[in-house]
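Please predict the structure of the following assembly.
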Amino acid sequence: MDIRIRAMDDAADRAGFTCGVEALDAWLRQQAGQAQRRRLASVWIASPAAHPERIAGYYSLAPWQVAFEDCPEDLRRGLPRYPIPVILIARLAVASDRQGKGLGGILLVDALQRAGAASGLVPVQAVLVHAKDERAAGFYAHYGFQRFPRQRFVLFLPMATAARLASAR
Amino acid sequence: MKTAITLRPDAKGRVGINALARQLQDRLGGQTISGYTAEVTADGAILLRPRVEVDAQEASTLILGAEDREAFLQALASPPPPGAALKAAARAHARATRRR
């Protein structure tokens, strides 16, 4: 597999992308461009090196934060006073004809690397995902993301874990 | 797109449940009421607001309760090393994206 991963641009054939989940296909076709232009999310696409117009997979990143429910003052001691900045992998999808070949993991690593680069500029503590279903949650758990005990489809990976990836190969 | 619906009691200020039910039936025009939330306004009318479907991806803040908070802070304090699957994916990433 020889692929290039780049920020989404006008050369990419978004209409030709299909991953089997209509919501992910439709978001790429109809909303990804606007999200990127309005700087609400960055969108990254993987293309075969020989066919840069084809989209083999994509992911999007967005700034997020984690806050805590109100709790009694005596329990607040030692807790962060402000929401904790994190990066959300808002969407990640692999084209139907590319599934089962490891591209999802490659896109995930790419997302973690870009999140890691961002954390060098602003303090980001973790990478967060909202899995659409159990299958998606299992995908992220396979790569070491931890489920929240009470929100089983929300998972996170500490930024420090992602940062150690480069030296752990 | 659904719009808010206001149902008013009759002119004498009575609730008039049958009249309100007829108003509601007319205004919904066959829709079910499950797509709305109801509240009573200061003047005694019933205001039905379209239920807002919040897209988790648009909310931008995750609120954690006590148990989730403990798990999160514990992981940040003691981040685990990357696991075997993630390391293998990193190697695959390096191979796949290497420029020849």
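The helical segments of chain B are 17-28, 56-59, 66-77, 84-97. Chain B touches chain A through 36 residues (CB under 8 Å).
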